[in-house]
Amino acid sequence: MKRLIGPFKEIITMSEAPLKGALAEDALGLISKGGILIEDDLIVKVGAFSDLKNEANSIDRIKGDHVLMAGLIDSHTHICFGGSRAGDYAQRVAGKTYQEILKNGGGIHDSVSKTRAASEEDLTDLVKARSKRHLEEGVTTIEVKSGYGLSVAEELKMLHAIQSANEKVPADLISTCLAAHVCPKEFDNHETYLEHIATKLFPELKTKNLTNRIDIFTEDGAFDPILSAKYLTQAKADGFDLTVHADQFTPGGTAVAISAGAVSADHLEAISDADIALLAASETVATVLPGASLGLGMHYSPARKLLDAGCCLAIATDWNPGSAPMGDLLIQTALIGSAEKLSISECIASITFRAAKALNLSDRGRIKLGQLADLIAFPVSDHREIFYQQGKIKPNKIWKRGVQVVG
């Protein structure tokens, strides 16, 4: 049964936009007075609404002017956590650095204590609530990391909670194991801890099918490039996709990510021009996290440079309890877009199909034949209003796999 949805004042298809490099306005692939034909959970045709009416078995008519686009994809979040880090915020605005707070037992260590104290059921409910908010703001695919457990049992608890939440919310939750977030207090040696995780946790992840993604924080105060490379080599040999927290405060992580064949290198605030060139020549996605820049009061990652060099750029929220508690993908994209002079096409690509590539997904992020019918509609008549309003306009109609879940 084919169902037609429309008409829409504009449809942003992004159907032919390339995965890498800068994008002009024409990359949006706009269709005026358009409709979209859906069968089951897939898009089967998009075009002028009047041309598609005869092909439909049913029609869902949209009242009023709306602009339709693919559902948003947030490819980097930490929304599985217990407690709050408002205390960290107070210290940061009083002048303490992220690294100073971490060394004094705050930061990630504080979230580890609070997350360990939470039950699996508590964490499931928290992930559900945060995912629901994200979905209502148009995010239909959400990456969710572990990393506040830092032991085999606690990391498994987090990943089970993410899996349980995924079964109870319409959005797709893509789990990532970030057991290599920092070295826990129980271990004196970073290398010993990484070996422990690789030998004891990796097999459990495979046996229980909890994730196919491994992440590591390559940074001063976390894990150095040599240890990171060794850990990622083992993860890749075990069949995991890789991603890396890279170059947030100091360079070195991007080179590790590229050498390991990671699907993405995330943060990049401290990336060098030489590593930008290496990233552009690779298949690794450059994921920038404006929420962390806002939360830490530091400069944005060089998104304009990355695009002009030929990188595949994704924008994600880094939604976490410490450095990026806001978690609003549209607002953050509007802000970095203004600061870094990103075109509307580049902004939309970075939170749809290019973000999908950062998750090694090719079945979503565009409006074209064969893609998942993950769709969001904004109550505006001109697509430029979405970012002109700095993310304050939210979609009022949302479809996940062809089913309307909002509106």
Could you walk me through the main structural features you see in this protein, from its secondary elements to its overall organization?
The chain has 407 residues and is α/β, with parallel strands linked by helices. The chain has 2 domains: 2-70 and 365-406, Urease, subunit C, domain 1 (Roll); 73-358, Alpha-Beta Barrel (TIM Barrel). Helices cover 37% and strands 22% of the residues. It has 16 helices and 16 strands. The strands form 2 sheets. Strands 1, 2, 3, 4, 5, 14, 15 and 16 form an 8-stranded mixed sheet that branches. The protein has an 8-stranded parallel sheet with strand order 6-7-8-9-10-11-12-13. Strand 10, helix 9 (253-260) and strand 11 (264-267) form a beta-alpha-beta unit. Helix 7 packs parallel to helix 8 (225-237) and helix 8 runs parallel beside helix 9 (253-260). The mean pLDDT is 97. It is an enzyme of class 3 (hydrolase). Residues 67-404 form the Amidohydrolase-related domain. Its EC number is 3.5.2.7.
At a glance:
By secondary structure, the protein is of the alpha/beta class. It has 16 helices and 16 strands. The two termini are 22 Å apart.
How are the SSEs placed, and which strands pair?
Blueprint: E1 2-12, E2 30-39, E3 42-48, H1 49-52, E4 58-61, E5 67-70, E6 72-74, H2 86-93, H3 98-103, H4 108-117, H5 120-136, E7 139-145, H6 152-166, E8 172-180, H7 190-207, E9 213-218, H8 225-237, E10 241-246, H9 253-260, E11 264-267, H10 273-280, E12 285-288, H11 290-296, H12 303-309, E13 313-315, H13 329-340, H14 344-350, H15 353-358, E14 375-378, H16 385-388, E15 397-400, E16 403-406
Parallel strand pairs: 1-4, 1-5, 6-7, 7-8, 8-9, 9-10, 10-11, 11-12, 12-13
Antiparallel strand pairs: 1-2, 2-3, 5-14, 14-15, 15-16
